Every structure is written in structure tokens, then in C-alpha cells.
Amino acid sequence: MEAGLELLSEQGKEAVSLREIARKCRVSPRAPYQHFADKTDFLAALAEEGFKEFGAAMARAEGDFSGLAQAYLDFAVRKPALMQLMFGDDFEDRAKRNPTLHDAALATFGQLEEQIARLHPDRDERSHRLLAVNAWALIHGLSELLRHGQLAHVLPGESSTKAVVDSAVELFSRADRGDAQTRRPSSSSKKKERRSS
């Protein structure tokens, strides 16, 4: 596993093969097949390990949603190839074929969902999940922009992602207030109600 993670980090998933892993570990070419059916099975194990490490990094984050978001971005910047594997499309029908990987991935999403629930305790479970999906999309999108060096073009004076993360936290913290304003009747509608009564 260590050899696989190292090869993935240095050369990308295309370079990962069970034969190369055997060579790096100085074992026979058939030895890895005692543990993994094929390359996809091995990559799934690497992705599962990645999600466990990813979840532990977010669990160690201090503070609330802001700390978790920063931990997400830091992990993505440190381990871009692993993140690509974890969130890529290599594992078709993941829940059925790679259930432990699937569970590890959902566990990290659950951490994000818990933070959203703390921000909005009065909302129901479905609302928490929808907000968490949007928060996930925003943070993961930021990680991709960082990976490709795009943020530097529009925020040239920023030396870190803290300002962007703080802005995202503010956005999701205001979600309830925005809904309340949307639900509140306007002054014109109140006048119409009085005239009709």
C-alpha cells in the first residue's frame, strides 16, 4: 500500500500496476494477486486508505465549518493525485463492488453534513444534506482551482485560502436568514391582503 501511494503521488494512477508494485516491494510478480484481484481492486484500496486519512485530517481540524473546510483544501493541495483517485470515476457501481470504499467516502461527507447541521439546527435532515452537497461542491471546486493555480489570477494578493474559506462560511451561515427574508411577505403584498379583507 505504501509503495502504491508513493507511485500514485509521483507518477499518477496510470503508472500504478501490480507488476510495478511487486518490483518496488521486491516480491514475485504474482505476489500482489494474493491480496488484490486486479489493478482496479488495488486502486480501490488506495482510495479507501485516502478517504480514511482524509477523514482523520478533517476530524483533527480545530473550530467549526471553517476549520473543516481549510483541512479539506490543505489535504487536496498536499495530495492532488490521491484526491483525483478518490473522487474520480474509476469505481463503477462503487456501493456494490467496493462497499468498504463506499462507506469510507460517505463517512467523510457525513463530517461535512454534521458541521452544516450545527450551523442550522432548526432545519430538517434533508435540508442539511442539500446544504452539505452545496458546501462540498464549493470547497471541492476551490480545491480544483487551487490545484490548477487559477485563484492566483483573480486573487493575486492573497497568500492563503483563509479569506476564501471565511467567505464560504459566511455564505452558508447566512442561508437561514436569506430564507427568512424570502418567506417574509413584502409590504406591497401586505397592502393587497388588507384591501382584499
UniProtKB/TrEMBL annotation:
InterPro entries: Homeodomain-like_sf (IPR009057), HTH-type_TetR-like_transc_reg (IPR050109), HTH_TetR (IPR001647), MT1864/Rv1816-like_C (IPR025996), Tet_transcr_reg_TetR-rel_C_sf (IPR036271). The keyword Transcription applies. Gene3D superfamilies: Tetracycline Repressor, domain 2. The keyword Transmembrane helix does not apply. Residues 17-36 bind DNA. GO terms for molecular function: DNA-binding transcription factor activity; transcription cis-regulatory region binding. Residues 1-54 form the HTH tetR-type domain. Pfam families: TetR_C_33, TetR_N. Keywords: DNA-binding, Transcription, Transcription regulation. Residues 175-197 are annotated as: Disordered. This is Transcriptional regulator, TetR family. The lineage of its organism: Bacteria, Pseudomonadati, Myxococcota, Polyangia, Polyangiales.
